[in-house]
Amino acid sequence: MILERSMIETIAAALSAHGLTLRGGFNFAGGEETPSGLSGGAARSVLLVGQAGAAPWPHFLRWKESQSQAVANPLDTWSREVIGGVANDFGARAVSPSDRPYLPFQQWAMRAEGLRPSPLGILMHPQYGLWHAYRGALLFEVEIALHEPRGVIHLCDTCVDKPCLKSCPVDAYSADGFAHETCLAHVRGQNGAPCRTGGCLDRNACPYGAAYCYPPQVQAFHMAAFAGL
Q1: Rounded distance, CA 173 to CA 187, Å?
Q2: Which superkingdom heads the taxonomic lineage of this protein's source (predicted)?
Q3: Which of 20, 97, 121, 127 is most buried, judged by most C-beta within 10 A?
Q4: Angstrom distance (rounded) from CA 202 to CA 186
Q5: Residue closest to 158 by CA, chosen among 212, 208, 111, 114
Q6: Which residue has the higher pLDDT, 219 or 30?
Q7: Rounded distance, CA 220 to CA 2, Å?
Q8: How far, rounded to the nearest angstrom, does the alpha carbon of residue 8 sit from its chain's CA centroid?
Q9: Which helix (H) or strand (E) holds 183?
Q10: What pTM did the predictor assign?
Q11: d(Cα 58, Cα 164) in Å, to the nearest integer?
């Protein structure tokens, strides 16, 4: 049995009603170790679910405001609820990037869309730049009818100045990787107000995908979650 493209388009439409986007997928190779599907058997395919820009934000806010009490990790909770509902409608198992043990979401995304990491670790998208994310995935115990991703230009290769590595006042990103504790201390500290209210300065310095840049309130929400504020 194969999940036909018409059904995949129906799934995409169901996700789009919540501002979410079907971000591609693939069939697992024979003999490849895979997570389990809905019935407990080995999954044979995966569809990635994510966002482009801040499209889910109004949907998420309406849901958040409808809750009778504060919800821990509200964006994750909303994403699980929405993607889980779609999964139930189409016979899939929904999984999340925050599930333990962690699933290889970044590797799945690279495989599904042909993307590569930017110097900040975020996958660089040829249209969305750094302004996209993955919110979950749908695992099926059947194969899906999808084409292999075409070759995608990696915009970071064309960027000479690399402003994403020059804008952070504490040089949180470098050739040595991400200095997590240095970044965290700065964001929480007296001089971290621009980051807390407007988001990561390095990320905002990237010239690509500007039309999809998250609004300041969305970036402030994510930064508060990162810093535990």
Answers
A1: 14
A2: Bacteria
A3: 20
A4: 14
A5: 208
A6: 219
A7: 42
A8: 19
A9: helix 180-188
A10: 0.93
A11: 28
